[in-house]
Amino acid sequence: MSITLTLQTTSTIPLEAEVISPDRLAGLTEAEIAALPVQHGNEKLTLGDFFRISGSGSEEIRLDGDLSRVKLIGAGMSFGRIVIAGNAGMHVGAGMRGGEIVVAGDAGDWAGAEMSGGRLLIKGNAGHLLGSAYRGSTIGMQGGEILVHGSAGNEVGSAMRRGLIVVCGDSGDFTGVNMLAGTIIVLGRLGWRSGAGMQRGSIISMHPTEILPTFTMACTYQPTFLSIFLRRLRDEGLPISEAHIHGSYRRWSGDSVELNRGEILLLAS
After folding, report:
1. Residue 222, Cβ neighbours under 10 Å: how many?
2. Quick one: CA dihedral 123, 125, 131, 134, positive or negative?
3. What's the CA gap between 14 and 128, in Å, rounded?
4. Which pairing describes strands 43-46 and 37-40: parallel, antiparallel, or unpaired?
5. Closest of 184, 224, 225, 236 to residue 206, by C-alpha
6. Angstrom distance (rounded) from CA 177 to CA 82
7. How far, CA to CA in Å, does 227 sit from each of 5, 185, 200, 224?
8. pLDDT in tens, 34-81
9. Which whole-number Å values give the CA distances from 154 to 37, 73, 167, 195, in the listed order?
10. Cis-peptide into 255, omega within 30 deg
């Protein structure tokens, strides 16, 4: 039986609840879970002040209600599973090291920021800075995978080091900015200045886009690694077509202001 947390009260003030994680809740009784501390503005309150709690001892957590004002759900988690039936607030899955988070609705900014393992599935849209580095940090996402069924905001995968990010819709400006390595696949359209400052890594889109002048057209080819990725994503129910899998891609090398070893692959029409 999973642990179910049902939001009982809403507020315009964000609730910081990094305690909502299998690492913290597994093995606890309902009373112990209710007593865990949360930060509400400048007040220190408890989880039980905001949620009705049922179930105990499980590595799976279910969250019901509109959690768009609840921050840091699953932050730093290393195992287990969290299912969010609605929207999730900022920093969901930030720094996660393992396990799985499923968001049925939209996710706020900084979802999966600096994560190093695990799986974050967002069935709606994601905000800005998906899988990115926090300000002042030189390394963002270092492993794991993020799948977004909708669109995402600006700076997807900023300073990304490893891992996979897939956006089924469009991504905002500066996708893959300062990217160190890893893979970003956008089935929709890339925003402006994608790949700016990237050193290594791959950014893939199924639509044409304006490429920065510091990138050079290298060739048109059929990347073997991409067909493997795409077949697996299709098996998971993502909208991957035969044209995506078997099509040719234009390869742009850059960014020449850095190492010039990154690439942007655009499906050739």
Report:
1. 12
2. negative
3. 18
4. antiparallel
5. 184
6. 29
7. 40, 12, 20, 5
8. 999 999 999 999 999 999 999 988 899 999 999 999 999 999 999 999
9. 32, 21, 12, 12
10. yes
> pLDDT tens digits, residue range 107-158?
999 999 999 999 999 999 999 999 999 999 999 999 999 999 999 999 999 9
Query: How far from the centroid of its chain's Cα atoms is residue 43's Cα?
Result: 29
Q: Which residues, 6 or more positions from 187, have their beta carbon under 8 angstroms from its beta carbon?
A: 166, 167, 168, 169, 205, 206, 238, 239, 240, 244
- 123 residue type, one letter: K
**Structure-block tokens of residue 221:** 């080819």
Burial of 260 (0-12, 13-18, 19+ CB in 10 A): middle
H or E, element range at 142 = strand 142-148
- Residue identified by tokens 């655009």 is 266
List the one residue out of 77, 79, 26 whose CA is nearest residue 56: 26
What is the amino acid identity at position 122?
A: I
Tokens found for residue 121? 């599935």
Provide the Cα torsion 196, 198, 183, 75; round to 10°.
Answer: -90
Q: What is the pLDDT of residue 10?
A: 83
Q: Do 74 and 101 touch, CB atoms closer than 8 A?
A: yes
Q: What are the DSSP E strand ranges found in 55-99? A: 60-64, 70-71, 81-84
Whether the model clears a pTM of 0.85, i.e. scores above it, the answer is yes
DSSP string, 90-128: TTTTTT--SSEEEESS-B-TTTTTT--SSEEEESS-B-S
- Name the DSSP letter for residue 210: P
